[in-house]
Amino acid sequence: MNYSTLDAAMEQMNLPVEIDVLSVYRALEEVQDGRHKRGVRYSVALIFTLILLGKVAGMTTPMAIAEWVRLRAEWLIAVLPITRQTFPCAATYSNVLRAVKAEQVNQVLTQALTRVRATARCGDEPSRLAGQEEREEHRHVALDGKTLRGTLSHDHPDQQKMHQLGLYETKTGLLLKEQVTGEKQNELSIVSQFLTPLWVKGRIISADALHTQHLFCASVTRWEGDYVLIAKGNQPTLRDDLQLFFTEPPADCRDWRTARTVDKGHGRLEIRELVATTELNDFLAAQWAGVAQVFRLTRTVHEEGKTRTEVVYGITSLSPREASAQRLLDLVRAHWAIEISLHWRRDVTLCEDHCQVRKGDAPRVLAVLNSFLLAVLDFLGVSNVPQQMRIFDAQPWQAVRLLLGSLLTFK
Questions:
Q1: Which pTM was predicted?
Q2: Tens-place pLDDT, residues 171-194
Q3: In what order do the strands lie in the sheet with 204-207?
Q4: Residue 351 region, left (φ>0) first, then alpha (ψ -120 to 50), else beta?
Q5: Among 293, 406, 338, which Cα is nearest to 167's?
Q6: How many other CB atoms sit within 10 Å of the CB of residue 224?
Q7: Phi and psi at residue 299, to the nearest 5°
Q8: CA 361, CA 366: separation in Å to the nearest integer?
Q9: Over the range 54-93, which residues count as b (16 or more CB within 10 Å of their CB) and which as e?
Q10: Could you report the per-residue pLDDT of 132-176, keeping only the tens digit for each?
Q11: N or C: less crowded end of the chain, CB within 10 Å?
Q12: Residue of 20, 7, 4, 1 lying closest to 400 (CA atoms)
């Protein structure tokens, strides 16, 4: 593409462009700017729009984003709400990332995408109640942490290492809430911020073995939520009790429900078998609040002539009526969406771990923007994110339309 030629891009965009009320740009206007008003040349909304434009086109660092914008400056000036004839340098992007609150940025963007999803569902009937299918879409959330590796190995007081704990809707791709701490082991010190009625009530929370704690179960059931947890070495007594029961079940065991899935592809065969029972409820109830079932999950993988087997045990507050063995198998598998659909794509597709933005809260804000961008692409039904990013890079006017137009009409 000849970036000095404006006509083709303007024709593709059907200019003039009106910024839609449900656009990403309008949402970004709600982000509070922590900078002093004096000397501010570019708004937070514009800076974040440029960051997202660069990222959706495959740029992964402020330097690359600044260069990508500079190479398209002539026609970007014509299509973006900018009054100046120049665009910011890489340092400005980093400075603005440090000047906002990550929690507020995530809240604003999550609410914006939630409004878009609600509008898509209800159309011109905003008062229409969500049906069972819509409620189920938001019910299961996964709690898991991710180390922002670009923040490691720095000694300056303003360059603290960060480990982000997030609450993720497995079906919508929304990062509902996030918080950071210094180490993965410190997740337990901040998990109470997630265990409030706002995030727990009516939801199913799945988490890794680190959060299999008595207080966690008590908090979730207290606020009328449910949990699905794995028992490993941090709870050796619970794990050993479950292992003994499933290895040598009593002869008079009356409840023994099973489910099985088989997946085959790319030279790999994976068999997942789950056994669930209520037989241990009374035995565990004194320490594990709300426990309604226990389960054993066996994963057998055949690949390249080799076979490996993994067995894990877990507990849940969901009763057999609320969650059959098949439902539990699906929930345990869906939990890994936070690892595969969020963390893995942030690392591999958006190169988050290689980004050296590390001062202040900037790494955390950048991680929030990465999560939001992936949620937007999920909403649009993009199955191959790298491929779509190459399309946006080749047709940047489409990326502008993505952020300035309505997500409801974007195709």
A1: 0.91
A2: 999 999 999 998 777 899 999 999
A3: 175-181, 162-169, 140-148, 204-207, 226-231, 306-316, 293-303, 268-277, 257-265
A4: left
A5: 338
A6: 11
A7: -110, 125
A8: 9
A9: bbbbbbbbbebbbebbeebeebbeebbebeeeebbebebb
A10: 667 778 899 999 999 998 777 766 666 678 899 999 999 999 999
A11: C
A12: 20
Write the secondary structure of the chain as one string of H (helix), E (strand) and C (coil). CCCCCCHHHHHHHCCCCCCCCCCHHHHHCCCCCCCCCCCCCCCHHHHHHHHHHHHHCCCCCHHHHHHHHHHCHHHHHHHCCCCCCCCCCHHHHHHHHHCCCHHHHHHHHHHHHHHHHHHHHHCCCCCCCCCHHHHHHHHEEEEEEEEEHHHCCCCCCCCCCEEEEEEEECCCCCEEEEEEECCHHHHHHHHHHCCCHHHHCCCEEEECHHHCCHHHHHHHHHCCCEEEEEECCCCHHHHHHHHHHHHCCCCCCCCCEEEEEEEEECCEEEEEEEEEECCCHHHHCCCCCCCCEEEEEEEEEEECCEEEEEEEEEEECCCCCCCCHHHHHHHHHHHCHHHHHHHHHHHHCCCHHHCCCCCCCHHHHHHHHHHHHHHHHHHCCCCCHHHHHHHHHHCHHHHHHHHHCCCCCCC
Phi, psi angles (nearest 5°) of residue 309 = -130, 135
The one-letter code for the residue type at 78 is A
Under 8 Å between Cβ of 404 and 19: yes
Q: Which two tokens stand for residue 214?
A: 């008595």
Rounded mean pLDDT of 44-66? 95
Residue 30 has pLDDT above 60, yes or no: yes
Instruction: Write out the two tokens for 89.
Output: 């340098």
Whether residue 140 contacts residue 323, with contact meaning beta carbons closer than 8 Å, is answered with no
Tokens of 248: 């040598």
